[in-house]
Design a protein that fits this description.
The chain is of the alpha+beta class. It is built from 15 helices and 24 strands. Strands 2, 9, 12, 17 and 18 form a five-stranded antiparallel beta sheet that branches. A five-stranded antiparallel beta sheet has the order 11-10-19-20-21, with no helix packed on it. β7 and β8 form a beta hairpin.
Length: 607
């Protein structure tokens, strides 16, 4: 469905629902004004006034009274629409913490995904393109190297294969049959190389291994693991068109761990249509909790969104979330992909042990290094290759030379005077030697050693344009909905900010559970950083029996499902002590209740 018809249909339904809700709101407002007028002086109508003057801070020894009330206006199926502009208006940290889905980079059963399309684009690049650096030109030629066009000069195979034509043997035939590929097939096959790039370069980045998650017993550090071969996508990534990728997956430096990154420069993606919007239906108490600002002995508000025992979202409603305007086939319109070379030349191993890869020093390199990527691609492609063949000259039954492979371990034997065969080695070590040699070639193919690239300076960066991500909007929408239903807590946090009801700077707030709740009575809950703008922190949070704040009387028992806040049940005649966020100490006396859903407190500053 296109954005415009979908938007119109959604707006018509939303208008009908909001029309009914508007009547409720106007009725309550008019009823409140009428009641206030009738109860005013002399029973005459009076225009209500609002005192917006902030009270002065309490002085030591000064007392004031504060009345907190617990009122409710439960709204079911309230719909909130979010455009791209609305999403970008949210705090960046909020957008970064809302994980939406994990992007599969490889796919399954032959599906072509982002990394497959990227490799195909690099292979299709003209190696003579003047915009490419020499290392990039060499890399394009390397990716397109086949048995038919292989240049093995400077490697252990060179002498033997140069002599092969002299005795009637085609060198491309030897290479192709040895590796079990066609003569014109690339050595670095797409599937093996794609898997190596994803697992070694991309998935080794710390930001690709963990994604944001709400803090919980299962995720105490606020992160969760990402399946290998995937990239986590957050609301920030989607809202900015993947402009975040160069920051997220650029160089990473932390104690005990570094990564050179694999994305550099500007990144852009075609993901959202101009009319994109997301609509969410919520069930909530439309009125905030009332709280007390100790410093001023003044009432304030704490948002009730996400703090109710009733779930904010009804997942039995298939339309609890509606996402319209994700482009049908998202694509990366521009991205610079980088692979970094190790600083020195890496020799081949000289032993088949330890199985299955041998003792080559390449396996001790960081996973993200180019040499390791090539070796791992070879291991993936040829680790099960077992094969042997011998070649003879004419009718002579004695073979001139033979090649034997046993699970990738290659041995070449020659007869007579046709050259010295290289020592046994694994195919992936041979591929690594070829790759390192060709990657450093100079600009003249006839004299590759002239102006050759020094070791450690052949890192490659390709600018990729218009690369399909490989997933459809339906797949993205389904993944987002399923993930948010499985763990809606991040979306609840976003909803609390979008529907923010908070005001002032209360230090604790008043909750009176519903009549049928297990925890009856009047409860005061000490605020957490997410409750109040500015994320206040306290040296001594909670409720205490003494002015020194050493005898806590609070607990974290469940009240309407909340087990996070420090809380205390209060009753008339009770006295307790609290501190504000700047270290002031206050005595709070619980006075006679004005009504069932109100508490009256006397706040005295003691220091």
């Amino acid at each position: 469905m296109s954005v415009v018809p979908a938007r119109r249909a959604w707006v018509r339904g939303r208008a009908r629902r909001r029309g009914a809700l508007a009547w409720v709101r106007w009725g309550l407002l008019l009823g409140g004004l009428l009641l206030g007028g009738l109860l005013g002086a002399g029973g005459c109508m009076a225009v209500p006034t609002v005192d917006t003057t902030e009270p002065a801070p309490l002085a030591v020894g000064e007392s004031r009274e504060v009345v907190l009330e617990a009122l409710r206006l439960d709204v079911a199926g309230y719909e909130q629409v979010l455009t791209r502009a609305d999403l970008l208006a949210l705090p960046r940290e909020t957008r970064r913490k809302l994980w939406l889905y994990d992007l599969d980079l490889r796919g399954e059963a032959g599906e072509q995904r982002l990394i497959d399309h990227a490799l195909a684009a690099i292979r299709a690049t003209d190696p003579t393109d003047a915009s490419l650096g020499q290392a990039e030109r060499n890399m394009v030629r390397l990716l397109n190297m086949t048995p038919a066009n292989a240049d093995l000069s400077g490697t252990p195979m060179a002498n033997l294969l140069n002599l092969a034509p002299q005795v009637g043997i085609a060198a491309p035939e030897v290479l192709a049959e040895s590796m079990g590929i066609e003569v014109d097939a690339p050595f670095l096959g797409g599937e093996a190389l794609a898997g190596s790039l994803v697992d070694n370069v991309i998935s080794s980045h710390p930001n690709a291994r963990r994604r944001p998650a709400p803090v919980s017993d299962a995720h105490p550090d606020g992160t969760a693991p990402v399946p290998k071969g995937h990239l986590p996508v957050t609301l920030e990534d989607v809202a900015t068109g993947l402009e975040t990728l160069s920051q997220t997956y650029g160089p990473y430096v932390a104690p005990g761990e570094t990564h050179p990154g694999f994305v550099s420069g500007a990144t852009k993606a075609d993901m959202l249509e101009p009319g994109f919007f997301m609509a969410v239906r919520a069930n909530a108490n439309a009125l905030p909790f009332k709280g007390c600002d100790l410093s001023h002995a003044a009432a304030g508000s704490v948002t009730s969104i996400g703090k109710e025992s009733t779930p904010l979202f009804d997942f039995s409603d298939p339309n609890w979330i509606t996402i319209v305007g994700v482009v049908e086939k998202p694509a990366v319109t521009e991205m610079q992909f980088t692979i970094v070379e190790a600083p020195g030349f890496v020799k081949a191993g000289d032993s088949a042990l330890p199985l299955p890869m041998g003792n080559g020093p390449v396996w001790h390199l960081p996973a993200w290094s180019l040499e390791r990527v090539v070796a791992d691609a070879g291991l993936r492609a040829f680790q099960e290759r077992t094969w042997s063949k011998s070649w003879a000259l004419g009718a002579d039954p004695k073979p001139l030379f033979e090649v034997t492979l046993r699970e990738g371990w290659m041995q070449l034997r020659s007869k007579g005077d046709i050259g010295a065969p290289p020592p046994p080695l694994y195919i992936w070590d041979l591929m690594g030697l070829v790759a390192q040699t060709r990657l450093h070639d100079g600009p003249d193919p006839e004299a590759p050693s002239v102006d050759a690239i020094p070791e450690g300076q052949a890192s490659v960066t390709f600018t990729l344009r218009d690369i399909p991500i490989g997933v459809t909007h339906d797949q993205i929408n389904a993944s987002i909905q399923a993930n948010l239903e499985a763990d809606p807590s991040s979306l609840v946090s976003v909803a609390a900010q979008i529907l923010d009801q908070s005001a002032g700077a209360p230090d604790f707030y008043y909750v009176r559970p519903l009549w049928n709740a297990a925890e009856q009575g009047d409860w005061l809950l000490f605020v957490l950083p997410d409750d109040v703008a500015g994320a206040p922190t306290y040296a001594t949070p909670g409720f205490f029996a003494d002015s020194a704040l050493t005898q806590p009387i609070h607990s974290q028992r469940s009240v309407e499902g909340d087990t996070s806040h420090l809380k205390v049940r209060v009753s008339p005649g009770q006295t307790f002590y609290c501190a504000d966020q700047v270290g002031g100490a206050f005595r709070v006396d619980v006075l006679a209740k004005p009504s069932l859903a109100r508490v009256r407190l006397r706040v005295t500053r003691v220091r």
